[in-house]
Request: fold
Amino acid sequence: MTNLWEDLETGPNAPEEIYAVVECLKGDRNKYEYDKDIPGVMLDRVLHSNVHYPGDYGFIPQSYYDDEDPFDVLVLVEDSTFPGCVIEVRPVGLMKMDDDGEQDDKVIAVPIEDPRFDHIEDVDDITQQQKDEIDEFFQTYKNLEEGKEVETQGWEDKQSALDAIEHAQDLYNENFA
Reply:
């Protein structure tokens, strides 16, 4: 069975075009996580706060980030896909975030195969309302979980996202290749 974290390449033209493996769905409160030992998607928990994911959320294959997890990616979509779906995406920005003292940044990306997002090339092309909703979600989604503290730290441009993806690829290669 294919392991989507280890066996799938980072993307067809990384870091400019990458794969996003979907774990959590836009509009959902279920927090799914890919378990590489199964391999498969498992329900980790239901979010304690009354919020829902603002896009399809998952990870980038063959990546490893400073929080010692695969690098997170939030894909802006009109309609949710399904857990385990692989989407070819274009990174457009980076949301900086601290999660319980660990750097837990999020790549923001758009689907390559959806013309509704062709105009989004960089973080400044995302509406302020959408950025505010994403920020609000990550700022509050762990509020009702005991002892969890999250701090969003602002937005960075596409080049920062590309640099962070390369960093995550290097960390993966150092630790797992």
